[in-house]
Amino acid sequence: MMGTILQSRLLPPPPPIKLSHSSLLFSPSQQHSRSNLKFTSKSSPSTITMASIKVHGVPMSTATMRVLAALYEKELEFELIPVDMRAGAHKQEPFLSLNPFGQIPALQDGDLTLFESRAITEYIADEYSEKGEKLMCPGCNKVKALTKVWLNVEGQQFDPIASKIAFERVFKGMFGMTTDPAAVQDLEGKLVRVLDIYEARLSKSEFLACDCFTLADLPVIHYLMGTDSKALFESRPKVCEWVKKITARPAWAKVVDLQKQ
Amino acid sequence: MTASAFEKWTSLTGIKVFGHAASISTRRVLLTLHEKNLDFELVHVDLKDGEHKKEPFLSRNPFGKVPAFEDGDLKLFESRAITQYIAHRYEGQGTNLLQPDSKNLAHYAIMAIGMQVEAHQFDPVASKLAWEHVFKLIYGLTTDQAIVAEEEAKLAKVLDVYEARLKEFKYLAGDTFTLTDLHHIPAIQYLLGTPSKKLFTERPRVNEWVAEIIKRPASQKILE
């Protein structure tokens, strides 16, 4: 999503969207067979090439990070295929056949193509529910519903604000534009209201949705911890503790490592 | 039925929606309940009085937004989390709002993509247009035509993608009506009464899809 914000300001308008074939095509009559494509921990290294998961994106993109974190939590093998954002590759074919909205990431798992990072992470959590970490609250529909509540909170309440702050504080500087302090102040005013709610929630629950780490806790906090905005997180004890816990996870360290490469 | 008998009857089913009958998000939940033929009580929240920003509503949704929801002892908020819960919990009843083969995770993921697209690509734009064209006027404010033009340009791009998608499938997630389509209905109903309607009508497949989804009995019920 950050890439999209950047590109929409720096590149000429994208060419008209032409779908030569739908990446979302599936035949309802086909059984979606997974058995020959699963990676098992008993496989020898040579069978790793059987891994069928490909992620199209860049490690700097927070939406891509969301998907990478989920894949690492699940200990799944995958291939990261870079998308040349500066060349506008995400707004052209062949990428548009993966995501007609021209945004990274897209994911391929065998013959299945997905986009929208939160749809992808939910798929990963469900399809590979037996592997690695559980990423949904365990139990019946009523308990699962709580994961969905906080996933929607992350997507609808937290993310729009956090990503705009990251744009102001981090990305604008990288592209020779100046941070708008009034915008930052306004956005931080909104963010603290959300973080107050998180603080209250985390006083009652180990993690956002329940007492286990779930998709709602994936630590995509938009680089804010490297900016002055981190004070808003650190000044709230439960939030501060939660941020430390989620960013200390081995899966997250692997995502950060990818960014350094 | 007397008022107290009605309350006793609806409290047996345990489903309550705390919201406003005209709110787009509240209507998303009401549509789902109607599609499922579920009995429920709509508890009116007085938005113009700021009831949603105060207790006791904040205990139901700390973000101070309608709707909130209750099914027995389960309390939820975020309309799209609520609709998904209803679709799963009451899967055997009323309209199926999931994919026909609900256990197929690949097909579920396709539907999930559509729900994310509605939430992140469609709704922010459609809501701004509904605000400019409809709700502002109710509050005696004037439409900002510059914002309308900007948002209509964004909506056009989204609807172009939908047009291509709907050339291959009858509905957004496949050949059956699902939550993905349902989530769009309340905002579309508002926009059809505004100049922005043309964005839907000038795209043939989108136009047909809109006509299909708004003529559903549940879609008519929420307008009453």
TrEMBL record, chain A:
Domain of life: Eukaryota
Cellular-component GO terms for this entry: cytosol
A biological-process GO annotation: glutathione metabolic process
Family to which this protein belongs: Belongs to the GST superfamily. Phi family.
EC numbers: 2.5.1.18
InterPro entries according to UniProt: Glutathione-S-Trfase_C-like, Glutathione-S-Trfase_C_sf, Glutathione_S-Trfase, Glutathione_S-Trfase_N, GST_C, GST_Phi_C, Thioredoxin-like_sf
Enzyme category, top tier: transferase
Protein name from the UniProt record: glutathione transferase
UniProt keyword Cytoplasm, yes or no: yes
Keywords: Cytoplasm, Detoxification, Transferase
Lineage summary: Eukaryota, Viridiplantae, Streptophyta, Embryophyta, Tracheophyta
Compartmental location: Cytoplasm, Cytosol
GO terms, molecular function: glutathione binding; glutathione transferase activity
Catalytic activity: RX + glutathione = an S-substituted glutathione + a halide anion + H(+)
Domain GST N-terminal intervals: 51-132
Domain GST C-terminal, chain residue ranges per copy: 140-261
Keyword Cytoplasm attributed: yes
Automatic annotation (TrEMBL), chain B:
Domain GST C-terminal intervals: 104-224
Molecular function via GO: glutathione binding; glutathione transferase activity
Family statement: Belongs to the GST superfamily. Phi family.
Single GO cellular component term: cytosol
Stated name of the protein: glutathione transferase
Pfam families for the chain: GST_C, GST_N
Xref: InterPro entries: Glutathione-S-Trfase_C-like (IPR010987), Glutathione-S-Trfase_C_sf (IPR036282), Glutathione_S-Trfase (IPR040079), Glutathione_S-Trfase_N (IPR004045), GST_C (IPR004046), GST_Phi_C (IPR034347), Thioredoxin-like_sf (IPR036249)
Lineage of the species this protein comes from: Eukaryota, Viridiplantae, Streptophyta, Embryophyta, Tracheophyta
CDD domains: GST_C_Phi, GST_N_Phi
The reaction(s) this protein catalyses: RX + glutathione = an S-substituted glutathione + a halide anion + H(+)
Protein keywords: Cytoplasm, Detoxification, Transferase
Locations listed in the record: Cytoplasm, Cytosol
EC number: 2.5.1.18
PANTHER family: GLUTATHIONE S-TRANSFERASE F2, GLUTATHIONE S-TRANSFERASE RHO
Domain GST N-terminal: 13-94
GO biological process: glutathione metabolic process; toxin catabolic process
